[in-house]
Amino acid sequence: MTSEFAPHWTLDPAIDYLNHGAFGACPRVVLEAQQELRSRFEREPTQFMVRGLEQGLDATRTALAPFVHASPEDLVFVANATTGVNTVVQSLSFAPGDEILTTDHEYGACRNAVEAVARRSGARVVVAAVPFPLHDAQQVVDAVLAAAGPRTRLVLLDHVTSPTGLIFPLERIVPQLAARGIDILIDGAHAPGMVPVDLEGLGATYYTANCHKWLCGPKSAAFLWVRRDRQAAIHPLVVSQGATSQRRDRSRFFLEFDWMGTIDPTAILTVPVALATIGGLVPGGWPEVQRRNRALALAGRRALCDALQVALPAPDEMIGSLACVPLPAGDPDAPPPVNWTDALQAVLFEQHRIEVPVFQWPKAPRRLVRISAQLYNNLAQFERLAAALSTLLPSGARR
Question: What is the CB-side half-sphere exposure of residue 377 using CA atoms within 13 A?
Fold first, then answer.
């Protein structure tokens, strides 16, 4: 039995797809809207790009801004949140002795981005150790604030962590960092559509997030928000026509980011359709979508913990629609995983037709299974995963 909402997506009904958090999934209506835009693009490319693109991007800003409680003037578009993080850190200048602070829960690609910048500049990356499992959100606050020092120039934090599925208590951390004069870059890759986002109220300096995950937009749609007083220092990774534009009718921020050569902008232009589509699937709109997904993720997490005989690894209030459960340790002598996943993931897919990520974290042999809950899922799918893991993992290893 599938969810009543599953027909809105094109996902293979023969697979229990529990990995929405990795790449998202587009509803049929959104895909059709993007295809129509692509057809218009090809019917008259000059009209679409030269005379129509700016209007389309502004329409997306206008639709997205109230959803994330921001001014449209502070939003530009990037391909994904990793690009957004790279855009910020590569725009900034660091000197030997400067420190960039992040946590050991940060997404690997974004951790690599700050490490690369630090190597080139002589700065140092400081990594705050946040425990997992953990008892309460204050442990995150304490770990980050203890690691921030007088040389800290920038702090990179997740809004919702990718490897552990935790909602970080940014409302407690950001004001204290800002009071010390430290700039904050938030990697919000998973947040919009999963949890309420209030960019103007949060108080961060920079915020980047995907529209292809929990907003269910097409791939290659993400945004970067930059506080107004810092926009002059932030430049896209691609230097293009806007860098020398003499126009005065648009901000330099827009002129540089809105045109980076000939790309396919239809994913970004389709975001308003995704916002309206998902928000229109249930009475109550987006708040009800988020409530349902979170309730399902919590139920699925409990089913896994019960089957594996492990305690809940984090309090419910730190969970949105993404959740991780520790698994028994893998083989310490096994070769490095292919594509960052544990061999157990392949077994679940090939033998049980369950698509769910299993990965080594923080390093082998420790590993986690991460579940995602979207409207197209139902509890029976998570119960099938729990049953499969019960058969695949030795009973003596469960604790």
Answer: 33
pLDDT tens sequence across 50-87 = 999 999 999 999 999 999 999 999 999 999 999 999 99
- What pairing do the DSSP bridges indicate for beta strands 206-210 and 222-226? antiparallel
Quickly tell me which residue has 């329409």 as its tokens.
59
Write out the two tokens for 392.
Answer: 């695949």
Length of the chain: 399
- Pairing relation of β-strands 183-187 and 322-327? unpaired
Place of tokens 């309420």: 196
Q: What is the mean pLDDT of residues 94-109?
A: 97
DSSP 74: G
Other beta carbons less than 10 A from residue 381's beta carbon: 24
C-alpha pair distances (Å), 395 with each of 308, 370, 392: 8, 20, 9
Cβ-contact 54, 206 below 8 angstroms: no
Check: CB of residue 72 under 8 Å from CB of residue 62.
yes
